UniProtKB/TrEMBL annotation:
Its cofactor is Zn(2+). The keyword Metal-binding applies. Pfam families: PriA_3primeBD (PF17764). Initiates the restart of stalled replication forks, which reloads the replicative helicase on sites other than the origin of replication. Recognizes and binds to abandoned replication forks and remodels them to uncover a helicase loading site. Promotes assembly of the primosome at these replication forks. Residues 137-169 are annotated as: Disordered. Component of the replication restart primosome. Belongs to the helicase family. PriA subfamily. This is Probable replication restart protein PriA. It comes from Luedemannella helvata. Keywords: ATP-binding, DNA replication, DNA-binding, Metal-binding, Nucleotide-binding, Primosome, Zinc. It comes from the Bacteria. The keyword Transcription does not apply. Binds 2 zinc ions per subunit. The gene is priA.
Length: 682
């Protein structure tokens, strides 16, 4: 266990001086160090003396090692000053681990702002922002990667040709698109929420925005949800910018390659970085644009403390540095809508005539008219309209996409007699079937349940309560025996498919891109998305439907989308009209009326009942704060703290952070998870 030094509330901690000469200490500079200690009551910079032997190497942004609380701890040198406000004696830096300046002043300010926004510590944010050091990569000369050695006078040249007429053609479909690119080219910081057209080549549009920013002499950070999207964006950037003018960052690269690419950006060899959520902190020089694609995707939410969202990190970065910002998606989140309504960003969308020309024809199954034509449509997984649409598309030589929200074969079964959910007798987990010949087994503990008997009626028969993607593929294979069936999901994700007749069954987020577009897209089991106990259920359902539907061909080219849902539902209506903006405005208005994010600020506290009660009792919550709950969650409980306005969010985060600091100073045995504006509330 780490034992912290005694501290005073109004002045920095007194740290004992080493045996080095006190006479030399008066001539040396002071370094302010962010020590890697994720304790809330020690979340500040500490002052150390810089020995003359490492004066040149100990520069802001480098990694250092210091003695802290009797132990050697790593940290980052934030800045150097001539004197310290600390009234006691200071000790010296123990070691400069590396003179490489991996933490820029801009990223350090951003990390501090993100920590304050999410009631976290700077140490936790810096772990997300700066990858672990790889000494061998760091020691390699720049020429080993085909680069020139960096100089302080100038960064290596990057091709910065103005965007050509061809490069701006795609943005010309949006009335405000050309003006957005011009502002980037002139070195300004425009802020936009972009609603991409159906079938839009969004990776190329983002690459064109990065090219316009480079033409203005500034760099870009582009963030996408997953590796498949990053591969598409990587190809587009290489095509638009040319080779060796950008890097991509993602966790799957491995520590050596990831650090090598990070250093290329940090050293100024490239000024365009694309990646997944961690790339939001990429050290790009002269940042002029931050962009995020599909900001509603839950992959943008960091699962590690302090749980920041990539969209909020990028918007904070744009605000602090005066850079342009682009929030882009086919759908629109309530947070993006709030940016427009508050005046912080401008809407970049196409006119309705262009949307109708690009969109596929969308038809629902399950409304009153459809039930009159096909009485079995209400209960069938594949109503006759969906079956005919798929048959016609296959006959026309085009592939068909079927989106199924559940993976697996039969992920949930029920009693064949009384329809009660089948549960494991050992852990009460749900039973599932993993294949057509498999014995029912528990989805939680994995125990087989061959002798399962319903505790309510005693029947032993089972029926499918929820059908997964693999079972759907089997059913379609029997319905279309001469057509190949391919699956894309957890067992294997397809990136692309050929423009040949085929049935492609995919779970949300795993839909492959078809050459020339799909002839038909079928959206099945929509109830699984709409009935989720989640504040964002409707928004998330529409986002996933639009993600699949945008892969279809335009209606003029025969593209069709069939959604198995009642056409009177609000999210379904938004899909039928292809109008995510109006739906987002309605969602935001409802949340504003109910007092939920993003209209209000909210914090989730999860821990044992005693620990949560202690934290709330210590916190000096802002006026108007409201406590919701607590409610039990497994072996813990969750309490929501809500403030009525976003302006009070900073005060809420500060109060929770200070209370957490008091608990950590007291060495509280039980931790409390603090999440500000969590992605999921229930």
């Amino acid at each position: 266990m780490l034992f912290a030094p005694k501290i005073h509330r109004r002045r920095p901690a007194v740290v004992r001086m080493s045996k080095q000469s006190t006479e030399a200490a008066g001539k040396l500079a002071v370094a302010r160090v962010a020590v890697d200690v994720p304790l809330a009551h020690l979340d500040r910079a500490f002052d150390y003396l810089v020995p003359a032997t490492v004066d040149d190497a100990a520069q802001p942004g480098c990694r250092v090692r210091v003695r802290f609380a009797g132990q050697l701890r790593d940290g980052f040198l934030l800045e150097r000053v001539e004197s310290s406000a600390h009234g006691g004696r200071l000790t010296f830096l123990d070691k400069v681990i590396s003179p490489e300046r991996v933490l820029s002043q801009e990223v350090a300010r951003l990390a501090r702002a993100v920590a304050d926004r999410y009631a976290g510590t700077l140490a936790d944010v810096l772990r997300l922002a700066v990858p672990p050091r790889h000494a061998r990569v760091e020691s390699q000369p720049a020429a080993a990667d085909g680069e020139r050695a960096p100089t302080r006078e100038a960064t290596p040249p990057i091709r910065e040709a103005p965007p050509t007429r061809e490069a701006t053609t795609g943005w010309g479909a949006y009335p405000a698109g050309a003006a957005f690119l011009r502002a980037l080219t002139h070195g300004k910081g425009p802020r936009a929420v972009w609603g991409a057209l159906p079938g839009e080549d969004w990776p190329r549009r983002l690459a064109e925005a990065a090219a316009a920013t480079l033409a203005g002499g500034r760099g870009s950070v582009l963030v996408v949800p997953d590796a498949r999207d990053l591969t598409r964006l990587d190809d587009a950037l290489a095509d638009v910018l040319g080779p060796d003018n950008h890097v991509t960052l993602q966790a799957s690269l491995g520590p050596a390659e990831r650090y090598r690419r990070f250093l290329r950006a940090s050293r100024g060899h490239v000024r365009v970085v694309a990646g997944t959520r961690a790339a939001a902190f990429a050290p790009v020089h002269d940042l002029g644009l931050v962009a995020i694609w599909d900001d509603g995707d839950d992959l943008h939410a960091e699962p590690r403390a302090p749980y920041p969202h990539a969209r909020e990190v990028l918007l904070t970065r744009a605000q602090l540095g005066g850079a342009g910002a682009l929030v882009a998606a086919t759908a629109r989140s309530a947070e993006a809508q709030q940016l427009i309504e508050s005046g912080w960003a401008r809407e970049v969308v196409a006119d309705r005539a262009t949307v109708r020309d690009r969109a596929p024809a969308v038809a629902p199954c399950g409304d009153d008219v459809d039930r009159e034509r096909d009485p079995g449509a209400a209960s069938a997984r594949l109503p006759s309209l969906a079956w005919r649409t798929a048959r016609d598309a296959l006959a026309g030589g085009a592939p068909v996409l079927i989106q199924v929200p559940r993976r697996g074969y039969v992920p949930s079964v029920a009693c064949a007699n009384c329809r009660a959910p089948a549960r494991c007798r050992h852990c009460a987990g749900p039973l599932e079937l993993r294949s057509s010949h498999a014995v029912a087994a528990c989805r939680w503990c994995g125990r087989p349940a061959a002798d399962h008997a319903c505790p309510h009626c005693g029947a032993r028969g089972l029926r499918a309560a929820v059908v997964g993607a693999r079972r759907t593929a089997d059913e379609l294979g029997r319905a279309f025996p001469d057509v190949p069936v391919r699956t894309s999901g957890r067992d294997g994700v397809l990136d692309t498919v050929d423009a040949t007749p085929a049935l492609v069954v995919a779970t949300p987020g795993a839909e492959p891109v078809a050459a020339g577009g799909y002839g038909a897209v079928l959206l099945l089991d929509t109830w699984a998305l709409l009935t989720r106990a989640d504040l964002r259920a409707g928004e998330e359902a529409l986002r996933r439907w639009l993600t699949a539907a945008t892969l279809a061909r335009p209606a003029r080219a025969g593209g069709r989308v069939v959604i198995v849902a009642d056409g009177a539902l609000v999210p379904v209506q938004a899909l039928l009209r292809w109008d995510p903006a109006t739906f987002a405005a309605r969602e935001l208005a409802e949340r504003r009326e109910l007092g939920f994010p993003p209209a209000a600020r909210l914090a989730s506290l999860t821990g044992s009942p005693a620990a949560v009660a202690e934290l709330v009792g210590l916190a000096q919550l802002p006026a108007g704060a409201e406590l919701l709950g607590p409610v039990p969650i497994r072996d813990a409980e969750r309490l929501l703290v809500r403030v009525p306005s976003r302006g009070a969010g900073r005060a809420l985060a500060s109060a929770l952070h200070q209370a957490a600091g008091v608990r950590s100073a007291r060495k509280a045995a039980e931790a409390v998870r603090i999440q500000v504006d969590p992605a999921e509330l229930w």
